Amino acid sequence: MGPITRIRWAAALAAALVALGTAAVPAAASPQSVTSLDVEWASADPGPLPLFFGTLTIGGTYTCTEPAGTTVLVSFTAIQIMPVALPSGAGNLSCGPGVVDAPWSLNSAPSQDVHYGYVSVLTSFNGVALPAEQFTA
Length: 137
What we know:
Blueprint: H1 3-29, E1 35-45, E2 55-64, E3 71-80, E4 88-94, E5 102-107, E6 118-125, E7 128-129, E8 133-136
Antiparallel strand pairs: 1-2, 2-5, 3-4, 3-6, 6-7, 6-8
């Protein structure tokens, strides 16, 4: 491939990129949906006796302006120490144009190991892992 051919290819590529860039501008002007989740608290509800199951509940606020009728998945795994417990849970949160700073909560699956005390919560929202949060539950 000679130098003239390379220049022609580069010019054609540049023209195509410019055309793609201008075609994308109208799409960017349309309203976009927003999703966000804030984990603000955790609460332990241990079983009354060692043979009974307890749960860990986490909650906070979320925003999801996806079209009405859609949902987003939220899941969590928590780590409690002394003794070690690994409660986890998952559920769906509703979306819609008016779902802004809405309260939410999610219970773990029942577990004999849930107890009061320090807990680290690892949350996933809409397929994205969020930074770990620490609470006293």
